[in-house]
Amino acid sequence: MSISAKTIPDFVSVLASKAAVPGGGGASALVGAVGTALGNMVGSLTVGKKKYAEVEPEIKRLQAECDRLQKELLALIDKDAEDFEPLSKAYGLPSGTDAEKEEKARVMEKCLKDACATPFEIMKKCAEAIKICEQFAAKGSRLAVSDAGVGVIFCKAALDGASLNVFINTKASTDRAWANKMNADADALIKEYCTLADKVFADVKAQLKG
Hints:
This protein has helices at about 10-15, 25-45, 55-90, 100-140, 145-170, 175-210. The chain is mainly α. It has one domain (about 5-210): Four Helix Bundle (Hemerythrin (Met), subunit A). It is elongated, with a radius of gyration of 20 Å.
């Protein structure tokens, strides 16, 4: 059974264990999928309401994007586990001789880059989801605006969480040009979309407390 197909109690149980996977990357992907689904729920509670007929075509388009993102984020739970396994094995490669050290360094570098790719993809998906939640918060049913706020802050947490799985791998890389580029790309996503998520959350909170 794939990790993403586990029941919630089973997923949480294995996450709490000393098993190598799932870890922070897979958990971030799950949280991102949940946040996206919350935004999608706002759409579901908006469509069909006469009060929101004018924005219904746009809401339906956003829902289709959410459907795609939810599936992609759930698939990334398993992809993150697949990418981490070779890296965990690479740490155990022999390094007694110069030849072994050279081979281990080569394998490690490839595995580090592969292990970085999925959490960075999770970050990008969460960035997309934050933009969508912003639209749901602005245009969706006022009765469900709190769910848009919860959704956007979940997606922010997932984006931030996935970034740590990028940074732990770039830190170990000897290819500093690649690592610095990855770090800069991740930082750019954090700066733009975590800032946006905070703004959306604050706006929703102000509406609810107003």
